[in-house]
Specification:
With 596 residues, the chain is of the alpha+beta class. It contains 20 helices and 22 strands. The strands form six sheets. It has a seven-stranded antiparallel β-sheet with strand order 6-3-2-10-9-1-22, covered by helices on one side. It has a six-stranded antiparallel β-sheet with strand order 7-8-15-16-20-21. Strand 17 (533-535) and strand 18 form a beta hairpin. Helix 1 (14-34) runs parallel beside helix 7, helix 3 (86-100) packs parallel to helix 6 (182-195) and helix 13 crosses helix 17 (374-381). The protein is globular, with a radius of gyration of 22 Å. The protein starts with 13 loop residues before the first helix and ends with a strand. Bound molecules: glutamic acid (GLU). Glutamic acid (GLU) binds at residues 411, 413-416, 434, 436, 453, 456, 480-482, 501-503, 506.
Length: 596
Amino acid sequence: MSSRYHYRHRRTRPPFRHLVRAAKLLLAVLLAACQHDLGAPLEVSSPASLAIPTQKPEVPTQHMIAAAHPLAAEVGRDILRRGGGALDAAIAAQMVLSLVEPQSSGIGGGAFLLHYAAKTGAIDSYDGRETAPASALPNMFLKPDGKPRKFFDAVVGGLSVGVPGVIRMLEMAHREHGRMTWWELFQPAIQLAEKGFAMSERLATLVKRDKYLNFNAAGRYFFRDDGKPKTAGTVFSNPALADTLRRIAASGSEAFYEGVIAEAIVETVSRAPINSGGMTLADLAAYRAEKRPPVCLPYRQWLICGMGPPSSGGITTLQILGLVQRFDLAQLGTNTAKSVHIVAEASRLAFADRNVYIADPDFIPVPVGGLLDQGYLALRSAEISPFKAGGRRAPGMPGVGAVRFVPDSSEKGYSTTHLSVIDAEGNAVSMTSSIETAFGSRLMVRGFLLNNQLTDFSFLPVRDGAPVANRAEPGKRPRSSMSPTLVFDGGGRVIMAVGSPGGSRIIGYVAKTLIAALDWGMDMDAAIDAPNFVNRNGATELEKGTELEALKPALEAMGHEVNLLTRGSGLHGIRVTAEGFDGGADRRREGVAIGD
Ligand code: GLU
């Protein structure tokens, strides 16, 4: 087996690497200096500005992993080299991400994972979404005057923390698909946590601009003794996380959901200096990961599968594709006003349904079959004019007896991570993992951050006298937009694994990447780096600083309200080609795709 690196990305271009890095650093410093708003863009480069010639490396043929941090990808690849399967690599890489990309995901958060088993052809989807504690109330995010709180007033502290799901979910998937021992998979992260790692540029930038992080344990961890934020390149260890991971490695998920770790979580949540929360030991002990039916839809000659509810990601991405299916997007052209218009119109319709019908299926009867019914999609698609924007769309009626709920607001999100793995046998994992906003609730326990996922619930429990589907309730999972995706060819072979962070825009980022790869014939890197465009049943957003900006007048002439999109994706994907694996890591983040 070759020991060569196969970075299918900017890291395959050594002569330019330092230039690009220097330019990114300079931009990062400039941005950090002039931005104080957490909603402002972090992205330090645009794909267009980094258009540099590609030097094609040897194509990996054995296995591949694409993840948001080189150390996580390297650990995952090492597991694959040692004979581990795709699921083993994903677990080991996720543990490393908890350490090196703590702003995005970790054992204090939740995840959704799609697994394809090559031998049996089984597609399993695992739900490790956080649950609301028994004390949660529908009005938990309302002010005393009955109005919803400002988003960040609710994020920081204990109230927003859902019972973490990552560990139970990975343990469940490992029982079914793991090849190496659970214990082994934790060792690389434990060693790194003890030895230390260098802080990445993105992590340093996020620490610096965060208004809420410098207190308690997180403050002590991310800031220096003189109160200044640690800077990029600072090497530091996390002995508390090493200890936590060692316990979970030795005793399984019980070590997390019961005993000293569970006690520390409850204590931290209930004693949070602001917004103390009501999570109890019983809430933690009761947490269950769930296996859910994956959602799949044929798209042209392919079959595309995603995560069902409580994520809205799979259904909405598939609806967008189902609605554009009757248009020849290849002929309408790559990144043209005509193509962007069609996809944006489809996205409006899909988001109109998403906002009304999708929430936790254990609480709400989600009409999954109706939403993905070909006849229904054909009727909805007939509403799309190739020439004129349709404005804000009303939800459809997906099937007899579907229960309608009033729409809720779209959540925001600035962290989250996606990783894709395909092993030598053709097993595949597509996993999106999150603690919601960057640094989650900002509460740190035993070396890891706790999520703020409960703010993905609608803050308003009732609107116009009707209950909101995605309102908070005890034991309920907040609706997500995470969209881990697998694509299959006509022979049932997996040909792509992809996903992204980005809050509800994830759906648009993933749909664009699928269209770029499948309709526009781009390779994985190009499809990922292709400029993003999103419509969440409002303005059409075009990625700032890219060639899409030039489409603004044409789209406006068709009736679109056009905004420039400053937030970025973090897509990580793998395509299977006749030559081997074609991996892609989003230039907007720090990841790599590597294989042998
Ligand atoms: N919490 C969001 C969701 O589950 C993801 C946040 C993000 O992507 O930053 O949809």
